[in-house]
Amino acid sequence: LISIAGVVLGKDAIQGKIFSEINGMVGNDAAKQIQDMIKNLELSGKSTISIIIGVVTLIIGATTVFGEIQQSINIIWQVKPKPKKGWLKMIKDRVLSGSMVVTLGFLLLVSLVLNGALTAASDHLKDFLPDITVTIFNIIGVAISFIVITVLFAVIFKVLPDAKINWKDVRSGAIFTAILFTIGRVVIGIYIEKSGTSSTYGAAGSLIVILLWIYYTAAILYFGAEFTRAYVDFQGKRIEPADYAVHVEQREEEKDVAIVPPKHEIGESD
Fold first, then answer.
1. Is 175 inside a domain boundary?
2. Which of 10, 64, 155, 239 is deepest in the core (most CB within 10 A)?
């Protein structure tokens, strides 16, 4: 992934941005360890075959993850594809997931370019406006990151599930999810800075923080899907299934165990 992005923006710029982002989430020590791992991988050398295998593995892994997200949101929104679609539906989902990977990668790339441009402009102008420039560009950078994150969640909620939903409803859910994402990112950054977990426990502490962040991100994604469904229900509407899907009705029913015959009696009655 770093090699592919490095073709466009340069490896040094990509690695510097990755180090900055990881440093903000898991601390300086963990970020240095990950940066050393990346450098060691580069020193080991890369062949054309290894690059092809890496790209194929990345595509398969990413599309599989999006497929799992699609199924999970389908369950939350109580929709599912019709059983007769079979292989055609699976191929369509893979193509859709691949398109999602490209789209989200493009959005992240745009965000990276804009943040880089803001950083360069801030460094150039802070000599003339030292107090105001840093604050203004920091606010703009946070706003751009928030907008990109919101668009990412909006695309996931709108495109992935087998459902029909208005952009207005998607927008509300995406903004809510992006707020939770931003809050979690800030809280984890403060926790790392104040507690010193990474320096205390070394690589194990860094791994715990990374796993915690992954779990939190997955949790808020599905919580945002629940919020979107609740918002639609509050508006007096319902998330409708797509043309190739059906609505799933969930119902609880209590039955007296004494009334239900044993399995061997059911077979004998036939």
1. yes
2. 239
